[in-house]
Amino acid sequence: MLVDSHTHLNMPHFRDDLDKVIERARTAGIVEMLNLGYDPGSMEETVELADRYGDIYAATGIHPHHAKEWEDGLEKRLKQLMMRRKVLALGEIGLDYYRDLSPRNVQ
After folding, report:
1. How far apart are CA 15 and CA 45, in angstroms?
2. What angle do CA 14, 18, 61 make, to 5 degrees?
């Protein structure tokens, strides 16, 4: 049994053939996937994706690159999404001092 623990199936370059991408993964032996939200928009998209496909689960969070996009109400929305049945993890989160796309004190 293979589980892909880090997918980004909701990214734009998969939109035109998402069903084919998922089917190829299944054919290759992937039985479940954890799709990760990384910014405010993708958090919502990843939960919607998990709701649509039985073998896809969600993790929601704000990647350190997007920490500067944090705004009032986002923490509340994140907590609401975390309560959804198919949301299994909090992530993408953490620190990224390699690229420093958001100020370190914001990360």
Report:
1. 12
2. 65
pLDDT of residue 1: 84
17-38 pLDDT tens trace = 999 999 999 999 999 999 999 9
Q: What is the pLDDT of residues 8-21, one digit of tens each?
A: 999 999 999 999 99
Scan for tokens 């035109």, then name that residue.
16
- Cis bond before residue 92 (omega within 30° of 0): yes
What's the start-to-end Cα distance of the chain, in Å? 36
Rounded-to-integer distance, Cα 7 and Cα 2, Å: 13
Cα dist from 74 to 5, 6, 42, 71, whole Å: 24, 23, 13, 6
| Both tokens assigned to 15 | 């939109």
Average pLDDT on 52-75 reads 92
Residues 39, 41, 47, 48: what is their CA dihedral angle, to the nearest 10 degrees? -160
